Structure formats: structure tokens, C-alpha cells
Amino acid sequence: MATMESLIVTVNRIQRACTVLGDHGGDTNLPTLWEALPSVVVVGGQSSGKSSVLESIVGRDFLPRGSGIVTRRPLVLQLHKTERGLQEYGEFLHLPKKKFTDFSMVRKEIQDETDRMTGKSKQISPVPIHLSIYSPNVVNLTLIDLPGLTKVAVEGQPESIVQDIEIMVRSYVEKPNCIILAITPANQDIATSDAMKLSREVDPTGERTFGVLTKLDLMDKGTNAIDVLEGRAYPLQHPWVGIVNRSQADIKKNVDMIASRRKEREFFASSPDYGHLASKMGSEYLAKVLSKHLESVIRARLPGITSLINKSIEELEAELSHLGRSVAVDAGAQLYTILELCRAFDRIFKEHLDGGRPGGDRIYGVFDHQLPAALRKLPFDRHLSLQNIRKVVSEADGYQPHLIAPEQGYRRLIDGALNYFRGPAEASVDAVHFLLKELVRRSIAETQELKRFPTLQAEIAAAASEALERFREESKKTTLRMVDMESSYLTVDFFRKLPQEVEKGGNPTSSSVDRYAESHFRRIGSNVYSYVGMVSDTLRNTIPKAVVYCQVREAKQSLLDHFYIQLGKKEVPIIFTPAFSLTCTYIHFDTSMCHPLGNLIGTGFIQTVVD
């Protein structure tokens, strides 16, 4: 069985992998592997002595110093104990294999890497910096240093900085696997401590909190922190630990941390107030306590972590199986893959139209309900009102009244009425166009083979949309031509029957005798209305034929034809260069489609395209 030390090292490696692959917790509500890993998070207000505590634990002066917010990104500090005699060094995750033996350069790199992410401003970023320190003077331990809590934004900081920092800190300490190292200066009233206030909110029982009192040597004469350190003033489930920070004089003189540790031990051993607690005080004792506690937490959480990883592997393997085989790197094979994916989409699209999948029936609904309803609502009553008929007929006659039948008046009334059919014809075309676009969208979403190629999905959608637009324009021209054809040549037989019907009615001359009577105009309106009704019945049948022929039929037969032509125009040696936007950029594997842990577990995912 692995020792506890090797378990901490393993957790460190998993944390580094999480960061490389974008899983660093803190800024997401999704379950991630990072959140399942126990960690020690250092929390404190600005100038609380956080940096000094960390440097005392490490035994090296390596953190940036200054006024205001110095820590602007989380620092994941992983300590690895080495054998005596080996050289100490630091190593950053973003600079693998580069060993820093000069710890002043470690400080500079922390500052430079922070600036690379946040710029020279005083903004903060949730993306952590990973620093591993290998030394015989440390214990195996991982600490996460966060920006210091503050109450006021200083010059150069946004007004939201106070809330931004608190939100970031809370996102870490609220996690149940987080061990809180709450730093509070002893020369400050503990009731006003930002760290203790926050830790009490997220960990009211104190089960996850370790309290640390810094600057014990700077307390006013005659005062001490015994009540706090012994757990009476502010009880926690874990014992308080007192720390003596390096003085500013020692920092300016570059007194090394080993000497500072020695002075700290001497302070507690010789102190009349804290002498009886000397064995449980100091940065060295704090590091050992934290390391031991972290080991026990890892042991307790280990089954859950293992279960989470195994479950994630199963989910990812199932999804990979569902996504299909990997894409070949050969140019010709990639082109074949694109065409194969397009055919899969085309097959599903046709199934929607032909009834194998839902959606195509809505096109029939346009012809069976929407078009007839639109035709019934056309304003023929207004157009064929007695007043309008008299006006149109009179204007058509001009100075010479008609002799027998007002043919020009008839034609003008019929032309005006038939012009109303253009609206329903165009509306039918647009309605079917909308439905076809929706079926394209649904078909892309339902084509499982396309799910890992978001760029190809977008290109297919664009190509299909462009084709449907062409089909719509052609369909609109055709349907409007059909309306125009009805106007350009009237059905003569319909009107030839009218005089015969009048004669059968026993009043063959009434149309000429009462040509200006109201009954005459009513008869004209009735005749025109009957003719328009006949045309309406005709168009009700022919408009769907034109729409289906120009739009639905074309969509089934040649939706992606133009797209295929564009692919075919490119020679194989050329089309897979980065400059060609229609092919090589399509085959782009999107790991975000996978489980949130996919970035870590599925590091074998393939991305085959040169972007």
C-alpha cells in the first residue's frame, strides 16, 4: 500500500494536471476533480503576515512583497521533502524542467507570471500559479495562498476589487474538502479578523479551520494572547498555533529563514507567557500539524476520489464510444470523413421531411391550414364593394360608355383582385423556408457524428442556409409567376357562359338596358367574385406544388450541392493547409462536449486539425 507521503505527492500531481487542463475549481459550480482533492487554503487580510507564515514554513524568502494587493493570483505551493544534502530548488508548472535555485528569481517569476495574466494593473485572476519547492527543510505539504482580504480599493484597483477577492476566497473555503488556515495578527482584535469572520461563516463548527496568530512579539507590553492560543477566547476544534514573523529589520538585512526559525524557537522557549506552549508553537510545528492533518484527510477522502475518477473514466469511455472513431490525418481520408459526416446529416434531414422523424408534417400544415386561411381573409368584399365597382367601371369606360358589357371594367376588377393573391403566395414560401431552416438546425443537433466537430456543424448550417435562401428566391419567383399568369390570360369559357345563363333567366337584355343600375353593378361584382373564387381554388392547389417543387424537392436533392462543389474545387494537397477554411478547420475535436473531468481523464483525446 502506498505511504501517506506518496499519496500527497500523487494529489500534487493531479492538481498540476487539473491546472494544465483548465480545471482549477474556484470559478465554477460544476463538479470537478480539483474540488474533490483536499487542500490547505491560506486566508487572511492584507498585512496579516500570510507571506511571512508561508516563507517560515518553506524556510526560504521567495514571495513578492509590497504595499496593497501583492498576491493577485492563487499560488498553489507544493512542498516536497528531499534527502539531506540535496540542493533546494523551485519549479513552476508553466516552466517545466527549469529549476530555480536562486529564490529571488522565484519571486521575480511569480510577479512576472502574475503580470502575464493580469497585466501591470492591480486586477486579480482565478487562474492559479503552481510552484513546487524541493527541499530537505520542508514537510510534504500543499498550501494555496489567496489574495488578502481587503476593505477598501486603492488607487489603480476597480471598485469591485473588495467583492471580487471575497468571492474568490469564498469559492475555495466553502468547499467541504478545504482545510482553512486562518491568519490573524495578534496585535489586532480577533473579533475584527477578516479571516476568522469568513471561516466562521463557512465552517461554523471550526472542524476545518486552523487558527494562526502572527506577530505575537509585537503585542503591547503587559498583554498576551494566551486566551486565544489555549482556545478559550475563540475555540476551534484544532489547536491555535502562534507564529513570530521576521521583523522588517531582519528582512532588510536578508536574515535567512533558518536563522529566523531559530529566533522564533528561542522566543517561545524564553517567553514567560508562552513557555509552557513552546512545543506547540512556531512555523515548524504548524507545518508538521498541517501535513499530518492533510494526510489524514486524504486517507478519509481517498475512496471518494477513486470512485469519482473511475466513474468519470466510465462516462468518458462511453462518450468516446458514442462519438465514434478517430479522424485520420491523411488529407484524402479527412475529405472522405467530411463527406461522410455531411451524408449522415443529409440522411436525418430527409427523414424529417419524409416522415421518419417529426417536423415534415408542419410543411403540409402550411398548405392545408395556413394558405387556405390566408386566402379566405383576402379583402375581396372591400375590393368588390358596390362603390368600388362603380368607380372602377366608370374609370375604365372613360368618355365612351361601354355598349354591351364593361370588359375593361371586368379586367381591371379581376386584375386588382388577383393581385391580392401575391401575399398568401409569398407567405407560403416564407413559412416553408422557416420550417426547412428549423429542420436543418434539428438535423444537425441530432446527427451524433457531428457533435465533436462544432466548426463543421457551423459550416454545414451556413451552407444549408445559403442553399435554402436560393430555393426560397426561386420558389417566390415561381409562385408569383403563377399569380401573374392568372392575370395575363383570363379563362374565356367562364365568361362565355354568363350571357347564356342570363338568357336562361328570362331577361337577356337586362345587362344592356340597366347598365348603370345598382343591380347591374351587383351582377358585375358577383361575376368577378365567382371568377376570383375559381382562381383561388386553382392557386390553392398550384402554390403548394410550386413550393414543394422549388423548395422541398430541391432541399432533399441538392441541399449541400454547392458545398460539395466548393470542396471539389480544391486539390487535395492544398485543401488541408491551414489557409483553406472549408475543410481542415472543420475537423476540430471539441473536448468541451465531454464530462467536466474529461480534460483530465481524457488526455488521449485527438485533435487532428491544423487551426
UniProtKB/TrEMBL annotation:
<keyword id="KW-0131">Cell cycle</keyword>
<dbReference type="InterPro" id="IPR019762">
    <property type="entry name" value="Dynamin_GTPase_CS"/>
</dbReference>
<feature type="domain" description="Dynamin-type G">
    <location>
        <begin position="34"/>
        <end position="303"/>
    </location>
</feature>
<keyword id="KW-0132">Cell division</keyword>
<dbReference type="Pfam" id="PF01031">
    <property type="entry name" value="Dynamin_M"/>
</dbReference>
<comment type="similarity">
    <text>Belongs to the TRAFAC class dynamin-like GTPase superfamily. Dynamin/Fzo/YdjA family.</text>
</comment>
<dbReference type="GO" id="GO:0051301">
    <property type="term" value="P:cell division"/>
</dbReference>
<dbReference type="InterPro" id="IPR022812">
    <property type="entry name" value="Dynamin"/>
</dbReference>
<dbReference type="GO" id="GO:0005874">
    <property type="term" value="C:microtubule"/>
</dbReference>
<dbReference type="GO" id="GO:0005525">
    <property type="term" value="F:GTP binding"/>
</dbReference>
<dbReference type="InterPro" id="IPR027417">
    <property type="entry name" value="P-loop_NTPase"/>
</dbReference>
<keyword id="KW-0206">Cytoskeleton</keyword>
<dbReference type="InterPro" id="IPR000375">
    <property type="entry name" value="Dynamin_stalk"/>
</dbReference>
<dbReference type="InterPro" id="IPR001401">
    <property type="entry name" value="Dynamin_GTPase"/>
</dbReference>
<keyword id="KW-0342">GTP-binding</keyword>
<keyword id="KW-0493">Microtubule</keyword>
<dbReference type="InterPro" id="IPR003130">
    <property type="entry name" value="GED"/>
</dbReference>
<keyword id="KW-0963">Cytoplasm</keyword>
<comment type="subunit">
    <text>Forms homodimer and may homooligomerize and heterooligomerize to form the phragmoplastin complex. Binds to PHIP1.</text>
</comment>
<dbReference type="InterPro" id="IPR030381">
    <property type="entry name" value="G_DYNAMIN_dom"/>
</dbReference>
<dbReference type="InterPro" id="IPR045063">
    <property type="entry name" value="Dynamin_N"/>
</dbReference>
<dbReference type="Pfam" id="PF02212">
    <property type="entry name" value="GED"/>
</dbReference>
<keyword id="KW-0505">Motor protein</keyword>
<dbReference type="Pfam" id="PF00350">
    <property type="entry name" value="Dynamin_N"/>
</dbReference>
<dbReference type="GO" id="GO:0009524">
    <property type="term" value="C:phragmoplast"/>
</dbReference>
<dbReference type="GO" id="GO:0003924">
    <property type="term" value="F:GTPase activity"/>
</dbReference>
<keyword id="KW-0378">Hydrolase</keyword>
<dbReference type="GO" id="GO:0008017">
    <property type="term" value="F:microtubule binding"/>
</dbReference>
<protein>
    <recommendedName>
        <fullName>Dynamin-type G domain-containing protein</fullName>
    </recommendedName>
</protein>
<keyword id="KW-0547">Nucleotide-binding</keyword>
<dbReference type="GO" id="GO:0016020">
    <property type="term" value="C:membrane"/>
</dbReference>
